[in-house]
Specification:
39% helix; 492 residues; 11% strand; globular; Alpha-Beta Plaits; 3 domains
Length: 492
């Protein structure tokens, strides 16, 4: 699969190299140390100032691929290495050349010197060419830009910080990005935004491959509804199931089945809450759930008490294959945090489509050329991958239950919209009855672990669900084993 940026290409190469070694039982110290030299075999750097820096960054990417956090570049003994899913690679972040505030040619060398007066840190001096910012003194407060009457000071906020809608990223005195775990919702937007690939997620692919290689372990892959179109327009969910079995998984269950069950249960909740005059939010997007818990704690009791489709699917598998090793596969980095700290029924491992693609390529598997396997989930369960899809499925189930009351839903695509809706709910000003929260603009399909462009995904998704408006969630679930699954979420 073609990578769409050089930063993602480097990540892919590190993941694939680790996957190839893991499948062949070759993850020894010597082979691991050789990965950077295999990826960059010559003395000519590909992107950075020198091959030594590039190889160091690859070494840290290899650590992430093996489930280990990257090492700091200095004061190792004094720096706490964090274990959250989203990690900053210091060696890569150090190369970011952006100083946030820059004086442009619009500077008129005015007599007022408003910028200099506004700076509390003595970072601005006036020269014959105009204002000058001493970046060693600048604390990026922005007062100079606000004070300039000519708007001559440009605000070049770092892409990672600009992409973070919860204010979890700060830039320290050493100019390295730092992630505040008390604010971070693990959405991964910073990882997608960083043009140097300095922020990434830790991987479990080595653990997953070891389980696949272990013939005494029953492995079950559960691909998310967003898988449609990720590996090419012809790679249907039926072909993906075949491809995953060729990769070595013993069983494959599509999470869209869990989504159907979630839609059914959330519809019941919605009807009950509507009758009581109470508002609620959906609970499928883990970043949205974390947003509520960390930033709007008063609204925790408004969250749907239905588990996510991932957890619903895992619980169903646990009932049927008690000792299975279950791997969720999707576009979402936040799912890794949900699995680590989520409710009972979390999978044993979570992988992104980026990681799965590296595994497929390491085994020379092309899902587009695999045979079709029959599937049973409704098109509504598969629509969970797009913004508005959860609401569409829930409202369909509400209608199937015979409810004719006018129920309004608020669809939120992206954290900005989610924050606005939650703020309104927080002060009892929300006119709608339910909020569908999607941290990524466009829905799960646009997750940072996706490998296909949104235009391609939308086309593939619509092709698969077109003409299936008569799908009936209730009829599909009637008599299905999923109806016996405990769907209740534990808010604690």
């Amino acid at each position: 699969m073609e990578r769409n940026t050089d930063t993602r290409q480097m990540k892919y190469e590190a993941l694939r190299a680790v996957a190839e070694l893991a499948f062949n039982d070759g993850l020894n110290e010597e082979n691991i140390d050789n990965i950077p030299f295999k990826i960059i075999p010559t003395a000519t750097p590909r992107f950075r100032c020198c091959v030594y820096k590039e190889r160091e960054i690859i070494r840290q990417r290899v650590r992430l691929a093996m489930g280990k956090p990257p090492l700091p570049i200095h004061n190792v003994e004094n720096i706490e290495v964090k274990s959250n899913t989203i990690q900053v690679i210091p060696a890569a972040c150090e190369g970011c050349p952006i100083n946030r505030f820059q004086v442009t040619e619009n500077c008129q060398k005015c007599m007022a010197k408003s910028c200099q007066s506004a700076c509390a840190f003595g970072a601005i001096t006036i020269t014959g060419r105009g204002a000058y910012i001493d970046q060693t003194k600048c604390r990026e407060c922005g007062k100079c830009a606000e004070a300039c009457p000519y708007h001559a000071i440009a605000d070049l906020m770092r892409p990672c910080k600009r992409s973070c809608d919860v204010g979890a990223i700060t830039i320290g005195g050493d100019k390295l990005a730092t992630i505040d775990e008390s604010k971070c919702v693990s959405c991964g937007h910073c990882a997608a935004a960083c043009p140097f690939g300095a922020i990434s997620d830790m991987s479990q692919i080595t653990e997953v491959i070891n389980k696949i290689n272990d013939k005494n372990t029953t492995t079950v892959a559960i691909p998310a509804p967003a898988v449609e179109g990720q590996f090419g327009a012809e790679a249907t969910i039926g072909r993906m199931i075949t491809a995953l079995k060729e990769l070595g998984f013993d069983e494959v269950v599509e999470v869209a089945l869990g989504a159907d069950a979630v839609a059914y249960n959330e519809a019941q909740e919605l009807i009950e809450n509507h009758e009581k005059g109470e508002k609620m939010t959906t609970s499928c997007c883990p970043a949205f759930v974390t947003l509520i818990r960390k930033h709007y704690p008063k609204l925790v009791d408004k969250m749907s008490n239905t588990v996510s489709p991932m957890v619903a699917t895992v619980r169903w598998i646990r009932e049927n294959i008690p000792n299975a090793y279950i791997v969720f596969i999707g576009p979402c980095m936040a799912k890794k945090e949900e699995a680590k700290f989520g409710v009972e029924g979390s999978p044993d491992a979570v992988m992104t489509f980026e990681e799965l693609n590296a595994m497929f390529d390491s085994r020379r598997i092309d899902p587009s050329n695999c045979q079709e396997t029959p599937t049973e989930a409704t098109s509504y369960g598969r629509r969970f991958s797009g913004a508005g899809g959860v609401t569409e499925a829930v409202m369909k189930a509400v209608k199937e239950m015979g409810c004719t009351d006018p129920i309004k839903a608020k669809g939120c695509s992206g954290l900005k919209e989610c924050k606005v809706a939650l703020a309104m709910l927080n002060v009892n000003k929300l006119p709608e009855d339910i909020i569908e929260g999607m941290a990524c603009e466009g829905g799960c399909m646009a997750g940072p672990g996706s490998i296909a462009p949104m235009t391609q995904l939308k086309t593939a998704r619509m092709k698969k669900i077109k003409g299936k408006e008569d799908d009936n969630i209730t009829e599909m679930l009637n008599g299905h084993e999923f109806m016996s699954v405990d769907m209740e979420r534990d808010h604690e």
